[in-house]
Structure formats: structure tokens, C-alpha cells
């Protein structure tokens, strides 16, 4: 049963924001909340090349020492993870969440999330993980892999929490995008929010018809709805619209062949998502 909001947390500077967005989503959806922390023990200590060391005894001694070091690092990582989970749980309870669940698992983040996917209604995670300071100009590799593997909506969040009031859907009339508009219209997440549908393309009769459909669906659900058709490069056009209208959450589809749906995952990672300072809800 996919009914829980899952928040993937680690020791990164995104953890508090992940917690706050997950709390907001769980309360809006009336869904239970789970925090999950993974321990990828294979990444804790790199296995050295000992072929140049003389003497079997020396090599065995070094391997024993490295095994002890790895065990200690794994223990410290587990303890740090538990502290992180405890802090997230306390923050969520203080914000009004009843009995959030904390899970700590061994394995890669992607494997762990896929194993728990059936229970997910929404997954919340940060733009980058604990090594964000080492790759400030790039998306975290875990995020890209998660988007590729998961089949649940995913909310990628920035470092600071802001409750969304102006939501923009990058719309292209595709099946995924139309589902996205319908989701925006009826989701408790966006109750009271202004919703914008933006088509990046030419002013054609087909695009105008698609936009009018989107606005009608949103208005029929009680939203203040706006829309626009704008020519130009996708990233620049959406960024400009975001700034003009104070957009604080972007909704996009993850896959497809259109220019918009190709933004997230493909042969390149786009400048828009790399530089995003607002949450992005990725639909599947």
C-alpha cells in the first residue's frame, strides 16, 4: 500500500529542509511519515593495493588493521545515522507529526528505496548528499539514480524550507503532463496555492487548446490559475517565468522525448535543475 511519505536523510546540510518538507507533505496529505537512513558500508573504506608489500605476515597484519578500521568506521556511521534519525523524529514530533517511523538500513540508497517503494506515496530527498560541498555545481549522483529507478513521485528540495504558495507546471500536453495538471488540481499538497501552467513553444492553436484545458482543470478545482505560452530555450524561459511570478515549487515529468520532459534525466543534466533554489516535484 503506497500511503507513506518517505524522507531520505543523511548528514548533509539538506537534512533539516528534507525533514521540514516531509512534515509539510505528510500533514497536507494526511499520511504517515517515515525517515530512512542508509549505510553503504562498501564506501566507508577503499580497499588498498597491497601487492607491493613484501612478506605474507606483513600483508595479513595490514589487512587485519584495515578490517578493524572499517569496523570502527561502520560503527561510527551507524551511531551518526541514529543521531540523525533521532533529531529528525524530534523535529517532526515538535511540528505535529504523530509517531514518525525511523528506519536504518545497510546498502545503497537506491537499493533501499526501491525495496520500500511499495509503501511510498511520496519520496522527499535533497538535491545532493553529504558530499554536496565537493560538487556544488552538480546534482548528486544518488538523485539521478533514484529518479531513474523509482516509480513514485519524488520531491527534490533545496536547503531552506518555504511552504509552496505559487506552483508552476512545465506543461507540454503530454500524457504525463496532463496527469500532472490533474494531480495539481486535486492534491491536498496544493490546497490554496496559485497554480501556473507554462508551455514553452510556439503560439499555435494546439498549444492554446492545451493551455486552456489545463487552466480550466485547475480553476474547476478551485485554484487561482494562470498560464502562458512562451517561445525560447526551455531552461531560460521557465527560469524567467519563475522569477516574474514568485514561483516556489516546480512540477515536471521525469522522462519523455519533448524538450521539457528531457530536462531532468538524459544525456545531460540541465543548468536549470543544477541551479534550482526551489523544490522540484518529479512525476512518474
Give the termini distance in whole angstroms. 17 Å
Counting DSSP E segments of at least 2 residues, the number of strands comes to 10
Strand order of the largest sheet: 3-2-1-4-5-10-9-6-7-8
Largest sheet, described in full?
A: 10 strands, mixed
Query: What's the assembly state of these chains?
Result: single chain
Percent in strands: 15-25%
What string gives the helices and strands in order? EHEHEHEHEEHEHEHEHE
Helix content class: 40-55%
Q: Unreliable segments (pLDDT under 50, ≥5 consecutive)?
A: 130-139, 263-270
Q: Give the CA-based shape.
A: elongated
Average pLDDT taken over every residue: 81
Q: What's the Cα radius of gyration?
A: 22 Å
Total of helices: 8
* Global structural class: alpha/beta
Name its key features.
284 residues; alpha/beta; elongated; ten-stranded mixed beta sheet; Universal stress protein UspA
Give an overview in words:
- Helix 8 links the parallel strand 9 and strand 10.
- The protein is of the alpha/beta class.
- About 6% of the residues have low confidence.
- This is Universal stress protein UspA.
Amino acid at each position: 500500500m503506497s500511503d507513506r511519505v518517505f524522507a531520505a536523510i543523511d548528514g548533509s546540510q539538506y537534512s533539516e529542509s528534507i525533514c521540514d518538507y516531509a512534515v509539510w507533505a505528510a500533514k497536507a496529505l494526511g499520511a504517515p511519515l517515515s525517515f530512512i537512513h542508509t549505510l553503504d558500508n562498501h564506501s566507508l573504506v577503499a580497499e588498498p593495493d597491497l601487492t607491493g608489500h613484501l612478506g605474507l605476515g606483513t600483508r595479513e597484519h595490514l589487512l587485519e588493521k584495515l578490517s578493524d578500521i572499517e569496523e570502527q568506521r561502520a560503527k561510527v556511521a551507524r551511531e551518526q545515522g541514529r543521531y540523525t534519525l533521532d533529531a529528525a523524529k524530534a523535529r517532526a514530533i515538535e511540528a505535529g507529526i504523530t509517531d514518525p517511523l525511523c528506519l536504518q538500513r545497510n546498502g545503497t540508497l537506491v537499493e533501499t528505496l526501491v525495496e520500500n517503494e511499495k509503501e511510498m506515496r511520496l519520496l522527499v530527498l535533497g538535491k545532493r548528499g553529504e558530499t554536496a560541498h565537493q560538487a556544488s555545481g552538480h546534482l548528486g549522483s544518488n538523485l539521478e539514480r533514484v529518479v531513474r529507478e523509482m516509480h513514485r513521485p519524488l520531491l527534490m528540495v533545496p536547503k531552506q524550507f518555504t511552504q509552496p504558495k505559487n506552483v508552476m507546471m512545465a506543461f507540454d500536453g503530454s500524457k504525463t503532463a496532463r496527469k500532472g495538471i490533474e494531480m495539481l488540481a486535486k492534491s491536498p499538497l496544493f490546497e490554496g496555492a496559485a497554480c501556473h501552467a507554462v508551455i514553452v513553444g510556439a503560439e499555435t492553436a494546439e498549444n492554446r487548446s492545451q493551455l486552456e484545458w489545463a487552466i480550466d482543470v485547475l480553476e474547476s478545482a478551485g485554484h487561482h490559475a494562470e498560464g502562458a505560452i512562451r517561445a525560447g530555450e526551455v531552461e531560460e524561459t521557465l527560469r524567467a517565468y519563475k522569477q516574474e511570478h514568485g514561483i516556489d515549487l516546480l512540477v515536471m515529468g521525469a522522462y519523455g522525448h519533448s524538450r521539457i520532459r528531457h530536462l531532468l534525466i538524459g544525456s545531460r543534466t540541465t543548468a536549470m535543475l543544477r541551479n534550482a533554489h526551489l523544490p522540484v516535484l518529479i512525476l512518474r
